[in-house]
């Protein structure tokens, strides 16, 4: 059976955390999430650097061990040659000494070769670990870049939400309707919160526009638009009148001005011939 005190303490802590998350500033939460991701990336990079450093160190040890094997092999061969030469020269004592030296070099060579094999196995493992570490760092770097880009997007959405909330608040104030924004705790949840706030603000604005005050504003705007349209027509008519110059009569077509009664009096036959 669970301890009631422990259960109550956990409940209080959860309630306290939820209240903190509810009152937290989304900008601060976004920045905290980015900083946490940056710290994780830095720690991962340090671990990867340690793995790669271990691989490089094994490479250096393996190189030295190979040099040691080559050196011991050369010494063993030289001791065998000297033992053979002493044997041919009849110097049995030196031949025995050189033979013993050759055997000692050969024993060291066996140990060194075994060390080379062990280092090769460790080096192969370190190569795989280093490759995995590099890949992990690259993937985490891409994820960090995506989070930074997401931060910019979220901040932009947050500003849009705040702007829409101000517009909605202005409309709701006409009907004495108030609403309070909410906050959410994490980077992933901030996105949902901002979108929810933005959608709620749009809905509230739509409701406010459908209210009596909203209809009054629409009527006022329609009246202003009609008055503006009428005023624009007056301006155009005035501009057409002002566009005629003082000598406009001289520049106008001559036929209507010269004979305004032309349509009432048909021309005579002689006049028609003269005009032609």
From TrEMBL:
Coiled-coil parts of chain: 27-89, 127-164
Compositional bias per record (Low complexity), positions renumbered to this chain: 249-261
Stretches the record annotates as Disordered: 166-190, 239-276
Protein keywords: Coiled coil
Biased amino acid composition, Polar residues: 170-186
A Pfam family the protein falls into: PspA_IM30
Family: Belongs to the PspA/Vipp/IM30 family.
Protein name per the record: Phage shock protein A
Organism, scientific name: Rhodococcus jostii
């Amino acid at each position: 059976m669970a301890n009631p005190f422990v259960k109550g303490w956990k409940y209080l802590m959860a309630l306290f955390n939820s209240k903190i998350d509810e009152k937290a500033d989304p900008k601060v939460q976004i920045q905290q999430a980015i900083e946490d991701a940056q710290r994780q990336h830095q720690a991962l990079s340090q671990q990867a650097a340690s793995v790669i450093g271990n691989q490089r160190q094994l490479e250096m040890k393996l190189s030295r061990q190979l040099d040691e094997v080559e050196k011991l092999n050369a010494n063993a061969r030289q001791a065998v040659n000297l033992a053979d030469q002493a044997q041919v020269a009849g110097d049995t004592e030196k031949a025995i000494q050189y033979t013993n030296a050759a055997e000692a070099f050969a024993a060291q060579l066996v140990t060194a070769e075994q060390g080379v094999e062990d280092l090769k196995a460790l080096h192969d493992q370190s190569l795989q670990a280093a490759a995995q570490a590099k890949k992990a760092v690259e993937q985490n770097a891409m994820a960090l870049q995506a989070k930074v880009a997401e931060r910019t997007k979220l901040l932009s959405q947050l500003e849009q939400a705040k702007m829409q909330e101000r517009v909605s608040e202005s409309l709701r104030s006409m009907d004495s309707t108030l609403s309070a924004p909410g906050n959410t705790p994490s980077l992933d949840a901030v996105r949902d919160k901002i979108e929810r706030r933005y959608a709620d603000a749009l809905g509230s604005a739509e409701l406010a526009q459908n209210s009596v005050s909203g209809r009054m504003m629409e009527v006022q705007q329609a009246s202003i638009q009609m008055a503006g349209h009428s005023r624009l027509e007056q301006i155009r008519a005035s501009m057409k009148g002002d566009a005629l110059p003082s000598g406009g009569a001289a520049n106008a077509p001559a036929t209507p001005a010269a004979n305004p009664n032309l349509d009432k009096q048909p021309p005579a036959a002689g006049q028609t011939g003269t005009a032609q």
